[in-house]
Amino acid sequence: QVQLVESGGGLVQAGGALRLSCAVSGSDFSINAMGWYRQAPGNLREWVAIITGSGTANYVDSVKGRFTISRDNAKSTVYLQMNNLKPEDTGVYYCNVVLRSRRLPWGQGTQVTVSS
User: pLDDT tens across 41-50, in order?
Assistant: First the structure.
């Protein structure tokens, strides 16, 4: 059964840090570029960071220098280390395959709330 399970969110003060994890099952994980996405209240879901199967990463400008995406292909898990968090980082964070034709059913996501 194909499944995405995100975890690691929480409530932190501005300047704090969180590490998100996303476990992927039922998919050929290692060949797919994976991404982290977030949805703030009232907004559409947007991409935050992506990583290729070989480990090349890219970030939306607003998180460059603060977030780091990584993956462990042996564990079929992708991570997002978030440092120096800002209130505008608040939202529900999801992971999924980047390529739309291979995208998996969205998981429940993990809530990140950053207080000022």
Answer: 899 999 999 9
What tens digit of pLDDT does each residue of 78-110 get? 999 999 999 999 999 999 999 999 899 999 999
Number of continuous H segments (helices) and E segments (strands) in the chain: 0, 10
Q: How many CA atoms lie within 13 A of 31 on its CB side?
A: 4
Side by side, which strands form the sheet with 67-72? 3-7, 18-25, 77-82, 67-72
Report the C-alpha gap between 47 and 44 in whole angstroms.
10
Q: Which amino acid is at 42?
A: G
Per-residue burial over 33-65, b = 16 or more CB atoms within 10 Å of its CB, e = otherwise: bbbbbbeeeeeebeebbbbeeeeeeebeeebee
- Which two tokens mark 4? 């995405």
